[in-house]
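User: Can you help me understand a structure? I only have the sequence.
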Amino acid sequence: VAFLTNILGYVFNWCYLLLKNYWFAIGLFTLLSKVILIPVSIWVQKNSIKLVRLMPEINQIKVKYFGDNDRIGEEQQALYKRERYNPFLSLIPLVIQILILVGLIGTIREVTRNASAASLAPIPTESGGVVLLMPILAALAALALGLFQNTHNPLQKEQSKSSQICTNSVSIAVSLFLGLFVPVGVGFYWVCSNLFTIAQQIFLNIIIPPKKYID
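Assistant: Let's start by predicting it. Here is the structure, written out as C-alpha cells:
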C-alpha cells in the first residue's frame, strides 16, 4: 500500500504543480488514470462484445443440457476457449479502480498534512454540514453512470431490467457509503471517476462500435 501511495502521490503532486489547485489536481489525476487505462478498457470492450455475440450459443447449450450443470459448464468453457473469451477480464478494471482508490486515500491523507490542502480532509460522517453533499454527489454520479451504461455499455445493455436495477443499486449504495466515510477529496475523485467513465464509454463506442459487431 505504501508503494502504491508513493507512486500515486508523485502523479498527484505533479498535477497540483501544474494547476496550483488541489481540486483541479484531483480532476486531472482522474482524467490521466482513465487515459492511461484506455488500452485495458478497449480490451474489456472487445471482450464484452464477444460475450454478447456468444449469448445465442450459450442459451442453446443451456437448453440442450438443461438440468446437467456440470455438462453446461464444460460446454461453456469449451466455447469460451474456442472463441478466446475470458470471463474474468471484466474484473480487471474493478481491481485497478480499488487499487487506485486505496492508494489515493493514503495520498490524500499525506497531502492534507499541508494546511493549504485542508479542504480535502473532512470526512462527512465526522464533520457534517456542507461536506455531507459529497456522498450525495457520489451517489448521483453513480446513478448517472448506471443509467448511461444501461443503454450504451454492450454487456450491461443486454441485461434484464431487474439485473440492471440490481447492478445500479449496488453501485449507488457503494458510492454513497464510500462518500460518507472517506475524506471529501477522495469522494470528489469518485464523482470525477464515474463521470469520466461515461466519457470513456462514449469514446470506446466510437472506436469500437458495438452495432458493427452485434446484431
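Now, to help you interpret it: The first helix runs from residue 2 to 19. The chain has a mean pLDDT of 91. Let me know which part you'd like to focus on.
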